[in-house]
Write a structure and sequence with these properties.
This protein has about 90 residues and is mainly alpha-helical. It is built from three helices and no strands.
């Protein structure tokens, strides 16, 4: 079974995390029984379960990019105004 990243796990809700842990436990048991046909199905369920958390992570990244751009624009604006005064 493939685990998701720590960042994604951190953005799972309590209910999603409980379900994720249960699915990983079931998948681990199935792997120990060499039931890889069923492990595939459980892994697909895990992949579907973590999709909302992945989207939340992407949104946090986009928000951080917007905040950085706004900060850089606020820093650049006074510099440009000062340069116009000197001419």
């Amino acid at each position: 079974m493939r685990h998701c990243s720590v960042q994604v796990r951190g953005l799972l809700t309590r209910e999603e995390l409980d379900r994720y842990n249960a699915l990983m436990e079931v998948g681990g048991f199935l792997e120990s029984q060499t039931r890889y046909d069923l492990v595939y199905t459980v892994q697909r369920e895990v992949d579907l379960l973590i999709m909302p958390a992945i989207e939340r992570l992407k949104e946090k990244s986009r928000q951080r990019d917007r905040d950085t751009e706004a900060y850089l624009n606020s820093k650049a604006a006074p510099t440009e105004a000062e340069g116009e005064d000197e001419e």
